[in-house]
Amino acid sequence: MSFMQNNNARLLIAVPEESILGPTKKMLSETMLILVSVGVIFIPLSWLFARVLTRPLRTLSEQIKQVTALDVSETETELSHIEEIAELQQSTAKMRKTLDDFLRLLTILSNEQDIHSLLEKTCDKASLMLKADSAFVYLKSEEDDSILEPFILHTQNDSIKADITQCPSLSTQWPYEKLRNNVNVKDIQFNLIHPMLKTALVKAGIHPENSNVYTLTIPLVDRSGHILGLLGFSYDECLADEDLTHVMGVAKALSDFVSLSFEGQDLIAKQKELLNSFISLIAGAIDTKSPYTGAHCQRVPELASMLADAACKSTQTQFRKFSLDSEGWEQLNIAAWLHDCGKVTTPEYVIDKATKLETIYNRINEIRMRFEVLIRDAQIQALTAISQGECAKQTNSILADNIQQIEADFAFIAQCNLGENFIDDDTIARIESISQQTWLRFLDDELGLSPAELAQKNRPNPITLPIMEPVLSDRTEHMIPHIDNSLELEAHLRFNMKRPLHRNDLGELHNLMIQRGTINAEERYIINHHVIQTITMLEQLPLPPHLSRVPEIAGGHHEQLNGRGYPRGHQEEEISLEARILAIADVFEALTASDRPYKTAKSLSQSIKILSFMSKDRHIDSDLFKLFLSSGIYLEYAHKYLKPAQIDEVDIAAYL
Length: 656
Prior knowledge:
This protein is of the alpha+beta class. The chain has 21 helices and 10 strands. The strands form 3 sheets. A 6-stranded antiparallel β-sheet has the order 3-2-1-6-5-4, with helices on one face. α2 packs parallel to α6 and α7 (296-313) packs antiparallel against α8. The chain is elongated and about 210 Å long.
């Protein structure tokens, strides 16, 4: 081996690669295959497991998104098997329920208009929210601000009849130690109920007699910090920990919401009360302005309400669609009370005009004095003739005839001055003949007149006295011009009432020749113009939407179904049923009224007969007229307001 000592030699052994690495590669491949197979199977399972595990969380996320959009409608949710998630689900459901209750309560608070109903529904809803056995409301007494009077006692148990009269009054000053220890209206508190209040709840059967009763008291305070009342809830058990925290939190929110809503409703109620008082005041002022219209504005609303109620209850085809809700009744009542409010602009001397020559006073006295002057002149003339040698007997005979004729002429004129007589053509001819008589005026008729009266005479040249004047005349100063009022003119142009040439014509002949009644054409326009004033005045009021038809109803009571009414001359289809009801009430009250100077009160049968003629001529609604009779309203009203002598037999079958 010596030859190898100095030589580098290597021993190489060749082994097949497959023999050494084959098993390793195979094992590696199998391992990778197993890993891939496990990954392929495990990842979907993991994803599926994660989906199942997070499903309640996703549901909660969607529900919370809905809550942020104030969508708190109930949804069924399967509780998770994970305790923490299940608790979160329950808390979220409770939150949704609380928000839902609050939103429903807010809807009640915003929609309800009656205070009693508002608080009743609040007690009902809040009792459920707070899981209370009963709820009660105390409000500040109107007579004494220091006293809280029981207003509502509510229980969820329909079998229990809660008697509010059993509840005691409470004092906001809390002079008694027991009250001070048990209730403080300025704070939300949960404690033992006051013994007197407990006694009332026990008597009502809400709580057992020997049990402890706890109360949750919530103050109702307005924005000025003044106490409006107290909202309370009673419990058989004392609340603590989480339950008490929940109840107190809800109670605090309730206090703010209910207080604000109650204050708003209370203000609305007081505004309505103010409006109704103002309406009654205006109606009373109109009636008081003229003692001859009596209580017309007060009786018409009552009669209209009676007829409207009968129409609502009627099953007849023509009234089947007619009904009035609370707002409809309010609208009709206001329209009825204010149907003549425009009369505040009507001069009293026109409303009260009892004779044809009456203005501020009865001018028949002026005419009487002129005829007195004629008699004196005749006597003077006779005495002068006798003194000059005329036959005294013959002269006195002529004088007696003249005086008799003068007296007869004046008596005739005085009779024409009354509105009871119809003025025909023969009467007009005699009036004109009498007016040709003259008398001698010596005194200046411009002395003692105001500047306006002097301007009204409009005499360019002075008159030489003495002067002969007719005993009856229509003079320039009798023509009263229209007032230069743009509002009046604008209102006039909106309606179809024909305006006369003058505002009034005080001419003596003009008025004595009025054919019927005491009102001339100009004064008739002034009286009828009150409807235009009524509509104009009512349209200027900022009436809410549910009272928007008040001007139309109030201003339509002189419209006629034949289209000949005023102020607009509406046709039948344009006149609402409420306006037709008001028209019948207005006419019947006027016919039967016994306080008018220009006419005697009609009897019941006479009034019904006149209404029947108006019905046939389509001045008033014939269906309403028949309902007025068949319902017995005419007789009920008569027994209440007519004099016994006016109430006679009426055969309504003849009109039905």
